[in-house]
Amino acid sequence: MTRILASGRAEFLIALRNRWVTIAVVMMALFSMVLSAAGSAPTGALGADKLSVTVASLTSLAVYLVPLVALLMSFDAVAGEVERGTLPLVLTYPVSRAELLLGKFTAHLAILALAVAVGYGIAVIAAMVMDPRAALGIPALVRLFWTSLLLGATFLGIGYAISAFARRPGAAAGLVIGLWLVLIVLYDLGLLAAIVADDGGVFTTQVFPWLLLGNPADAFRLYNLAASEATAAAAGIAGAANSIPQIHALASIMLWPIAAFGLALMAFRKVTP
Amino acid sequence: MCLTLSQVTKLYDGRTVLDDVGFDVAPGERVALLGHNGAGKSTLMKIILGLITADQGTVSVLGDAPGSHTARAGTAYLPENAAFHPALTGEEQIRYYLRLRSQDPDLAPALLARVGLADAAKRRIGTYSKGMRQRVGLAQALIGKPRLMVLDEPTSGLDPVSRREFYEILDELALEGVAILLSSHALTEVEARTDRIVILSGGVMVANDTLGNLRRRAALPIRLQVSAHPGSADQVADKLSGGRRNGVMVDLTCGYDDKLARLGDIAALGAMIDDVEIIPPSLEDIYSHFSKGAAS
User: Fold this and answer.
1) Looking at the predicted structure, is the pLDDT value of residue A118 above 70?
2) End-of-domain residue from the set B167, B198, B216
3) A92 and B CB contact within 8 Å
4) Would you say residue A43 has pLDDT above 70?
């Protein structure tokens, strides 16, 4: 445990010096301020409190931003050490590869938690100021917070796996951006296209729900929007999947971080210093 | 024994980089590992450290397998061109390594002071020179009383004064019983600073002995440089049947076993001789002798 914390502490210092902490926090704060401003229009028709509406918009934001920040922080984790030549030395220390990776993971997740907390905090304050009923939305926001961390944890793990697999920071950076595009942007477009083409056939009823659950970002969106009163405000693809039980989405977002970290560890163990 | 290697063989893509290498290092012993680039020195060190595995043969580090917890806890490593994260300061980096070895991180300033980096401790490693990074590397190798030190080209990038300080630290450690295995290109500098020399050539161990024994085995000629009394150089050269180098110096060569007899001849010339200098074959000569022997 002390070794995990030692590695985490060093990693946090490095992220602080490299301005990653600042970048992540400012990015989340900025976007959430923009969303709060955009969401300040009257929402009487929906009948939902201001914070619940904000949470729905924040969910759509987090789906893009949290994986991006997580991947940007993690792509250098192994490849950077390989390139700098710092890996052989640390691997001769009485510390396991799992402990090293967990240390980095702890630091990066803490930074992500800080950024998300600042971003969501701003949204809460804005909502509270504008709508006295906003307190009703607090449970939804808390849920959004911890699921955002699980989503971030998943993409940190995926980023480490890619970093270990690519072994060069440049290649790893390209791969994580490509993966982000595919999983977060193109995946949903592809599913939509398939549904339209299928026109209510076997794919739409049998395969589609599982494909949606299989993508951590979609599972995150499903869970948060299904649990929220204000689904209609930001439904998108989730509207098409109302039949998926919430517990399935929850299982997906819980299992993904473990699977991703396992994958990262497997890839890291294959790296020969 | 702190380190025992026997019949260690390693292949990379069907190419043999280490072939049947075996030697050991006792507590307090300083062993130099010599060889050209690509002779297999770094590969051998990585096997000892458990970073890569040997294809054949056995390695025992502090009585355990390389890479095991016991082996890693008792072994310190200084990589060739020690590298660290440029964003951390020297002190932060050493604190990190201290924590990884479950030591008090507050020992960092003392360790940095011991390698002459007290003033730079609070500066980022990105601003350090190569020699300073090498000192950080040495400082981390001193953490937690290691029983075996594996040092890959430890003095590259150090100036002569720092080199001497470095070897003084190694001498202290050897006195405390630390086994030291170091590789080097700078042959002359390991000459006086190590107890035994292992020479690798093309992955094959061609020598493993003390410098004295290697000299004897190589049987390379010893040079005797005689300073004749002014005016008698020709006479001396004649009597000793050696070539005259300049007005006063006479150069002789002889085999190891003839050394005393030749010295007797020189002494017999009495007043004609001012001084005599015995120049044994240098480590470079011995090294190329054994390296060539393996190649042919």
Assistant:
1) yes
2) B216
3) yes
4) no
pLDDT, residue B81, reads 84
Q: Does the structure show a pLDDT above 50 at A115? A: yes
B74: domain CATH number?
3.40.50.300
Interchain contact, B87 vs A18, CB within 8 Å: yes
Asked if residue B150 and residue B94 are part of one domain, the reply reads yes
On whether both B205 and B60 belong to a single domain, the answer is: yes
Q: Do B85 and A84 touch (CB under 8 A)?
A: yes
Using one digit for the tens of pLDDT, what is the confidence trace for B124-152? 999 999 889 999 999 999 998 899 999 99
Q: Is B128 on the interface with A (CB under 8 A)?
A: no
Asked if the C-beta of A97 comes within 8 angstroms of chain B's C-beta atoms, the answer is no
B277 DSSP β-pair partners: B225
Residue A234 pLDDT: 47
With beta carbons under 8 A apart, name residues in chain B contacting A17: 87-88, 124
In tens, the pLDDT along A170-223 reads 999 999 999 999 999 899 888 888 888 887 777 777 788 888 888 999 899 888
Q: With respect to residue B65, please indicate whether it lies within any of the assigned structural domains.
A: yes
Determine the distance in angstroms separating the CA of B156 from the nearest CA of chain A, rounded to an integer: 16
The pTM assigned to this predicted structure is 0.86
Domain of B253, CATH number, reads 3.30.70
Note whether A88 contacts B: Cβ–Cβ < 8 A: yes
Which residues on B lie below 8 Å from A7 (Cβ)? 96, 100
Report residue A232's pLDDT band, with 50, 70 and 90 as the boundaries: very low
B100/A92 CB distance under 8 A: no
Residue B27 structural domain? 3-216
Most A CBs within 10 Å, among B75, B96, B147, to test the A interface: B96
The answer to whether B87 faces chain A, any CB pair under 8 Å, is yes
Q: What is the ipTM of this complex?
A: 0.85
pLDDT of residue A239: 54
Q: Are B22 and B8 in contact (CB under 8 A)?
A: yes
Pair B75, B116 in one domain: yes
Alpha-carbon distance A164 to A132, whole Å? 49
Q: What's the gap in Å between the CA of B195 and the closest CA on chain A? A: 25
Are residues B205 and B126 part of one domain?
yes
pLDDT digits (tens, 9 = 90+) for B16-41: 899 999 999 999 999 999 988 888 88
